Amino acid sequence: MNYIAHLNKVLAHFGRDPRLHPTHISLYMALFRRWNEEHFPRWLTISRKLVMKDACMGSTSNYHRCIREMHRWGYLKYKPSHAMAGSRVRLLVNLKIGVPLEGQPDDKACLLLGHRCPNTEQLSIYNKHINIKRLWKEKKETIEDFFERKNLEKATEEFLRWVSLDYPEKQTFEDVDDLLEEWYQEMKTEKKAKSQPREDYLQVKKTKRYDQPL
Description:
The chain is mainly α. Helices cover 52% and strands 5% of the residues. Helix 5 crosses helix 6.
Protein backbone atom coordinates (compact mmCIF):
# COMPACT_ATOMS: atom_id res chain seq x y z
CA MET A 1 0.00 0.00 0.00
CA ASN A 2 1.62 3.28 -1.15
CA TYR A 3 -0.03 5.66 1.27
CA ILE A 4 1.60 8.77 -0.22
CA ALA A 5 0.24 7.99 -3.70
CA HIS A 6 -3.19 7.21 -2.22
CA LEU A 7 -3.23 10.43 -0.21
CA ASN A 8 -2.23 12.51 -3.24
CA LYS A 9 -5.01 10.89 -5.27
CA VAL A 10 -7.60 11.59 -2.57
CA LEU A 11 -6.46 15.20 -2.19
CA ALA A 12 -6.82 15.66 -5.94
CA HIS A 13 -10.42 14.41 -5.68
CA PHE A 14 -11.03 16.78 -2.76
CA GLY A 15 -9.95 19.73 -4.89
CA ARG A 16 -12.45 18.84 -7.64
CA ASP A 17 -15.44 17.96 -5.47
CA PRO A 18 -17.61 21.01 -4.62
CA ARG A 19 -19.78 18.99 -2.22
CA LEU A 20 -17.02 18.69 0.37
CA HIS A 21 -16.65 20.99 3.36
CA PRO A 22 -13.65 21.29 5.71
CA THR A 23 -15.36 18.91 8.14
CA HIS A 24 -15.46 16.15 5.50
CA ILE A 25 -11.74 16.55 4.78
CA SER A 26 -10.83 16.75 8.47
CA LEU A 27 -12.82 13.58 9.16
CA TYR A 28 -11.21 11.69 6.26
CA MET A 29 -7.70 12.70 7.40
CA ALA A 30 -8.47 11.50 10.94
CA LEU A 31 -9.65 8.15 9.56
CA PHE A 32 -6.61 7.95 7.29
CA ARG A 33 -4.32 8.49 10.28
CA ARG A 34 -5.97 5.60 12.15
CA TRP A 35 -5.79 3.46 9.01
CA ASN A 36 -2.06 4.19 8.72
CA GLU A 37 -1.43 3.37 12.38
CA GLU A 38 -3.18 -0.01 11.96
CA HIS A 39 -1.06 -0.80 8.85
CA PHE A 40 -3.88 -0.41 6.34
CA PRO A 41 -6.32 -3.24 7.18
CA ARG A 42 -9.16 -3.93 4.77
CA TRP A 43 -11.69 -2.91 7.44
CA LEU A 44 -10.85 -0.54 10.28
CA THR A 45 -12.73 -0.65 13.59
CA ILE A 46 -13.11 2.90 14.87
CA SER A 47 -14.08 4.73 18.04
CA ARG A 48 -16.35 7.68 17.37
CA LYS A 49 -14.95 9.70 20.28
CA LEU A 50 -11.33 9.22 19.19
CA VAL A 51 -12.06 10.00 15.55
CA MET A 52 -14.03 13.12 16.50
CA LYS A 53 -11.13 14.23 18.70
CA ASP A 54 -8.59 13.71 15.90
CA ALA A 55 -10.86 15.51 13.41
CA CYS A 56 -11.54 18.39 15.85
CA MET A 57 -15.28 17.81 15.56
CA GLY A 58 -17.55 18.70 18.46
CA SER A 59 -20.95 17.72 17.08
CA THR A 60 -22.03 14.07 17.00
CA SER A 61 -24.76 14.76 14.45
CA ASN A 62 -22.24 16.53 12.22
CA TYR A 63 -19.90 13.52 12.48
CA HIS A 64 -22.63 11.07 11.46
CA ARG A 65 -23.77 13.30 8.60
CA CYS A 66 -20.24 13.67 7.20
CA ILE A 67 -19.28 10.01 7.41
CA ARG A 68 -22.56 8.90 5.80
CA GLU A 69 -22.16 11.45 3.01
CA MET A 70 -18.60 10.29 2.29
CA HIS A 71 -19.91 6.72 2.22
CA ARG A 72 -22.61 7.74 -0.24
CA TRP A 73 -20.17 9.69 -2.43
CA GLY A 74 -17.73 6.78 -2.75
CA TYR A 75 -14.78 7.85 -0.59
CA LEU A 76 -15.24 5.09 1.98
CA LYS A 77 -17.52 2.29 3.17
CA TYR A 78 -19.13 2.78 6.57
CA LYS A 79 -20.81 0.14 8.72
CA PRO A 80 -22.44 1.51 11.89
CA SER A 81 -22.05 -0.27 15.19
CA HIS A 82 -24.60 -2.68 16.63
CA ALA A 83 -25.01 -4.61 19.87
CA MET A 84 -22.06 -6.96 19.35
CA ALA A 85 -19.67 -5.02 17.10
CA GLY A 86 -18.24 -1.53 16.82
CA SER A 87 -18.36 0.79 13.84
CA ARG A 88 -16.17 -0.16 10.90
CA VAL A 89 -14.78 1.85 8.01
CA ARG A 90 -13.11 0.81 4.79
CA LEU A 91 -11.17 3.54 2.97
CA LEU A 92 -11.58 2.76 -0.71
CA VAL A 93 -8.37 2.56 -2.75
CA ASN A 94 -9.85 2.52 -6.26
CA LEU A 95 -11.83 5.73 -6.12
CA LYS A 96 -14.58 6.14 -8.72
CA ILE A 97 -16.14 9.41 -7.71
CA GLY A 98 -18.43 11.45 -9.93
CA VAL A 99 -19.02 15.14 -9.34
CA PRO A 100 -22.46 16.74 -9.86
CA LEU A 101 -22.72 19.19 -12.73
CA GLU A 102 -23.49 22.79 -11.84
CA GLY A 103 -27.14 23.11 -10.88
CA GLN A 104 -27.60 19.33 -10.69
CA PRO A 105 -29.33 18.04 -7.51
CA ASP A 106 -26.96 16.21 -5.17
CA ASP A 107 -28.27 12.65 -5.09
CA LYS A 108 -26.63 9.25 -4.81
CA ALA A 109 -28.27 8.19 -8.08
CA CYS A 110 -26.82 11.21 -9.91
CA LEU A 111 -23.05 11.02 -9.49
CA LEU A 112 -22.06 12.15 -12.93
CA LEU A 113 -18.98 11.45 -14.96
CA GLY A 114 -19.57 14.23 -17.49
CA HIS A 115 -23.15 13.21 -18.34
CA ARG A 116 -26.53 14.44 -17.17
CA CYS A 117 -28.73 11.69 -15.81
CA PRO A 118 -32.25 11.67 -14.32
CA ASN A 119 -32.59 12.24 -10.61
CA THR A 120 -34.42 9.03 -9.75
CA GLU A 121 -33.86 6.26 -7.26
CA GLN A 122 -35.00 3.77 -9.89
CA LEU A 123 -31.79 4.30 -11.87
CA SER A 124 -29.65 3.17 -8.92
CA ILE A 125 -31.79 0.06 -8.38
CA TYR A 126 -31.70 -0.74 -12.11
CA ASN A 127 -27.90 -0.50 -12.21
CA LYS A 128 -27.61 -2.80 -9.20
CA HIS A 129 -29.71 -5.43 -10.95
CA ILE A 130 -27.52 -5.18 -14.04
CA ASN A 131 -24.32 -5.53 -12.01
CA ILE A 132 -25.59 -8.53 -10.04
CA LYS A 133 -26.48 -10.26 -13.31
CA ARG A 134 -23.04 -9.42 -14.69
CA LEU A 135 -21.32 -10.69 -11.55
CA TRP A 136 -23.24 -13.97 -11.72
CA LYS A 137 -22.52 -14.37 -15.43
CA GLU A 138 -18.79 -13.66 -15.16
CA LYS A 139 -18.00 -15.37 -11.85
CA LYS A 140 -20.64 -18.09 -11.57
CA GLU A 141 -18.17 -21.00 -11.40
CA THR A 142 -15.98 -19.27 -8.81
CA ILE A 143 -18.96 -18.43 -6.59
CA GLU A 144 -20.49 -21.90 -6.83
CA ASP A 145 -17.13 -23.54 -6.09
CA PHE A 146 -16.64 -21.36 -3.00
CA PHE A 147 -20.05 -22.19 -1.53
CA GLU A 148 -19.60 -25.87 -2.33
CA ARG A 149 -16.30 -25.94 -0.42
CA LYS A 150 -17.93 -24.17 2.55
CA ASN A 151 -21.01 -26.42 2.34
CA LEU A 152 -23.21 -23.34 1.91
CA GLU A 153 -24.89 -23.98 -1.43
CA LYS A 154 -28.08 -22.21 -0.32
CA ALA A 155 -26.29 -18.96 0.58
CA THR A 156 -25.72 -17.75 -3.00
CA GLU A 157 -28.73 -15.41 -3.04
CA GLU A 158 -27.73 -13.96 0.33
CA PHE A 159 -24.23 -13.21 -0.96
CA LEU A 160 -25.53 -11.53 -4.13
CA ARG A 161 -27.94 -9.43 -2.04
CA TRP A 162 -25.03 -8.42 0.20
CA VAL A 163 -23.00 -7.31 -2.83
CA SER A 164 -25.90 -5.27 -4.21
CA LEU A 165 -26.37 -3.42 -0.90
CA ASP A 166 -22.72 -3.00 0.04
CA TYR A 167 -20.98 -2.00 -3.16
CA PRO A 168 -21.50 0.94 -5.54
CA GLU A 169 -22.90 0.51 -9.04
CA LYS A 170 -19.53 0.77 -10.78
CA GLN A 171 -17.75 -1.72 -8.51
CA THR A 172 -15.51 -4.10 -10.44
CA PHE A 173 -15.69 -7.78 -9.60
CA GLU A 174 -12.12 -8.82 -10.39
CA ASP A 175 -11.54 -9.43 -6.66
CA VAL A 176 -14.53 -11.74 -6.27
CA ASP A 177 -12.46 -14.09 -4.06
CA ASP A 178 -11.92 -11.24 -1.59
CA LEU A 179 -15.62 -10.39 -1.69
CA LEU A 180 -16.56 -13.99 -0.95
CA GLU A 181 -14.12 -14.25 1.95
CA GLU A 182 -15.25 -10.90 3.36
CA TRP A 183 -18.91 -11.96 3.22
CA TYR A 184 -18.06 -15.31 4.85
CA GLN A 185 -16.21 -13.67 7.75
CA GLU A 186 -19.07 -11.20 8.33
CA MET A 187 -21.59 -14.02 8.29
CA LYS A 188 -19.59 -15.96 10.92
CA THR A 189 -19.27 -12.86 13.12
CA GLU A 190 -23.01 -12.13 12.99
CA LYS A 191 -23.89 -15.77 13.61
CA LYS A 192 -21.60 -15.89 16.64
CA ALA A 193 -23.09 -12.65 18.01
CA LYS A 194 -26.64 -13.96 17.65
CA SER A 195 -25.75 -17.23 19.41
CA GLN A 196 -24.43 -15.49 22.53
CA PRO A 197 -27.12 -15.05 25.21
CA ARG A 198 -27.93 -11.47 26.07
CA GLU A 199 -28.41 -10.50 29.69
CA ASP A 200 -31.97 -9.59 30.54
CA TYR A 201 -31.68 -6.49 32.71
CA LEU A 202 -35.43 -6.46 33.39
CA GLN A 203 -35.44 -9.91 34.95
CA VAL A 204 -35.59 -9.79 38.75
CA LYS A 205 -33.22 -12.13 40.57
CA LYS A 206 -34.86 -14.69 42.82
CA THR A 207 -32.32 -14.00 45.57
CA LYS A 208 -33.18 -10.29 45.75
CA ARG A 209 -33.70 -9.03 49.31
CA TYR A 210 -36.56 -6.54 49.56
CA ASP A 211 -35.95 -5.94 53.26
CA GLN A 212 -32.62 -4.25 52.51
CA PRO A 213 -32.59 -0.53 51.62
CA LEU A 214 -31.30 0.53 48.21
